[in-house]
Design goal:
Layout: H1 3-20, E1 38-43, H2 50-65, E2 71-74, H3 101-109, E3 116-118, H4 138-149, E4 164-165, E5 170-173, E6 183-186, E7 191-195, E8 198-202, H5 207-211, H6 224-254, E9 259-263, H7 297-310, E10 314-318, E11 325-327, E12 341-345, E13 371-376, E14 384-389
Parallel strand pairs: 1-2, 2-3, 8-9, 9-10, 10-12
Antiparallel strand pairs: 1-13, 4-7, 5-6, 7-8, 11-12, 13-14
Helix pairs in contact: 6-7
C-alpha cells in the first residue's frame, strides 16, 4: 500500500471512530472539528410506576451524577397520566399528604449534584382534573407547582444556577379548588439562561392539546364554563410563551449565541403520520388535521419563523410521546426541510401491566428509564450532538455485562 493511500485509509478510520463516539468531524473554522466542550443531561416523563420511582429513577440520577455534565433539564411529567391502583408511591395529584408527586419530584431534582431545571408536564397539572387523578382543578395545580418548583430565580439541584424568569405577559392562576376566581400571575415556570455561548429556554407547552381539549373522565367536554376556562388559560399562557420565545431568540442574537435550545413537554406533531400518538398536522401550514383543538399551531409557527431567521442551530427538546428520537421533522411553508432545526425526544415509559398484550412483567418497568446527553461545542458548525445514555442498572432485555 502506498504511503498516500495509507494516510487516506487511516484518516477515514479515525473519522468513523470519532463519529461513533459522538464527535462531529469536518474542516476548520465553522466545521465540526472539535471535541465537545461540555455536556447537558436531558430527561423526562418519569416515573410511571413504583419500580421506576423507587429503583429506576434513583439509578438514572446516580448515573447522571457520575457523568461530567454541567446541568440537566427535565421536560415534564412527574407521574403517569392516570393514578395507579395499589401503588405505594404517589400517583395522584394530591399534595395534602406527603409524599406527593411534587415532593417526590423535588427530592429527585435536589438529588442531582449539578443544577437541575424543570418544566411542567401535562400529567402534573392539565390532567389532574381526571377523576382517576383526584379530580383537582388543573389551574390550581399549576399554581401549586409554581410555588413548589419556581419560587426563586435559581435552578434546583445541589449546585444551583441563576436563571432569567419571565415576568410579562402574565399567565392565569388560581388558588381555589373550584378554579374561580382566577388572577393574573407571572409565568415563573418559563426560564432562560445562556451558558458558554448557547442560549437555553423552557416554555410551558403541554400535551392534551396544550390544555384546549378535555383530559378525560372528570373534565367536561360540553360544559361551556369549563371550556371557556381552558380557553382563557391557554390564551394567556400562549401569549406569554410566544413572547418568551421571541425574547429568547432576540437575546441569542444580541449575545452572539452559537445556538438555541428550547425545552417543553408536548409533542406537537410535525406531519400527518400521527407517529407515536402525536397530533397530525399539515407539515407546510402546520395546521392540525385530526379534528382535535389545535393548541400548537401558533407556537410551532412562531418557532419555525424564528428558527429560519436565526439561521444558526436550533434544537427543540420535548417528551410526551415516550419514544427516544433525534430527527429533523420541520418543513418550511414550501415543503423544504428546515436544515438548522433538530428535534430531540427524550426517553419516557408507559408501565407494563398484566393486561398488556402480550402480558408484561412489572419488573420490565425500568426498560426505558434512561436519559439523553447533549454534547455541546459552540465553535463547531452544528454545535450539538446527542447520545442515548442507557443506564446500566436499568437494562432489562439485555442485562449489563
Amino acid at each position: 500500500m502506498s504511503r498516500r493511500k495509507a494516510v487516506v485509509v487511516l484518516a477515514a478510520a479515525l473519522a468513523v471512530a470519532a463519529a461513533l463516539a459522538g464527535i462531529a468531524v469536518a474542516g476548520k473554522g465553522d466545521g465540526n472539528n472539535k471535541t465537545f466542550e461540555y455536556a447537558v443531561g436531558l430527561w423526562g416523563d418519569l416515573p410511571y410506576s413504583d419500580l421506576q420511582a423507587q429503583t429506576g429513577v434513583p439509578n438514572l440520577i446516580a448515573d447522571m451524577n457520575d457523568q461530567d455534565i454541567e446541568f440537566s433539564v427535565h421536560d415534564g411529567d412527574l407521574k403517569a397520566g392516570n393514578s395507579i391502583a395499589n401503588s405505594v408511591t404517589p400517583t395522584t395529584c394530591q399534595s395534602a399528604v406527603s409524599p406527593s408527586i411534587y415532593s417526590q419530584g423535588l427530592g429527585y431534582f435536589n438529588s442531582l449534584e449539578k443544577p437541575a431545571i424543570f418544566t411542567p408536564g401535562d400529567n402534573d397539572w392539565t390532567d389532574c382534573d381526571r377523576t382517576s387523578n383526584g379530580g383537582f382543578n388543573s389551574l390550581e395545580r399549576l399554581q401549586y407547582e409554581r410555588g413548589v418548583f419556581f419560587s426563586t430565580d435559581t435552578s434546583l439541584g445541589q449546585q444551583q444556577m441563576k436563571l432569567e424568569v419571565q415576568s410579562t405577559p402574565k399567565c392565569l392562576g388560581t388558588t381555589s379548588s373550584t378554579g374561580s376566581p382566577t388572577f393574573q400571575t407571572p409565568c415563573v415556570e418559563n426560564r432562560r439562561w445562556t451558558f458558554r455561548k448557547v442560549t437555553y429556554a423552557t416554555l410551558n407547552v403541554q400535551g392534551t392539546c396544550n390544555n384546549l381539549c378535555s383530559s378525560g373522565a372528570g373534565d367536561s367536554t360540553t360544559d361551556p364554563d369549563v371550556i371557556k376556562a381552558r380557553q382563557d388559560e391557554y390564551a394567556a399562557r400562549e401569549a406569554a410563551d410566544e413572547q418568551w420565545l421571541q425574547d429568547t431568540f432576540d437575546e441569542a442574537s444580541s449575545q452572539g449565541s452559537a445556538a438555541v435550545m428550547i425545552v417543553w413537554q408536548a409533542d406537537p406533531g410535525f406531519d400527518t403520520s400521527g407517529y407515536q400518538g402525536a397530533p397530525k398536522r399539515d407539515p407546510e401550514t402546520l395546521v392540525e388535521s385530526d379534528g382535535n383543538p389545535d393548541g400548537f399551531h401558533d407556537i410551532l409557527s412562531k418557532l419555525r419563523n424564528l428558527t429560519i431567521s436565526f439561521k444558526k442551530p436550533v434544537v427543540l427538546v420535548h417528551g410526551d410521546s415516550h419514544y427516544f428520537m433525534v430527527d429533523k421533522p420541520l418543513l418550511d411553508s414550501s415543503g423544504r426541510r428546515v436544515e438548522n432545526f433538530t428535534r430531540v425526544e427524550t426517553f419516557g415509559d408507559h408501565t407494563f401491566t398484566a393486561t398488556t398484550n402480550p402480558p408484561g412483567d412489572p419488573s420490565w418497568d425500568d426498560n426505558n428509564v434512561h436519559w439523553v446527553k447533549a454534547l455541546v461545542d459552540p465553535q463547531s458548525r452544528d454545535v450539538f450532538a446527542f447520545q442515548a445514555e442507557i443506564v446500566p442498572a436499568n437494562r432489562v432485555a439485555v442485562p449489563s455485562p
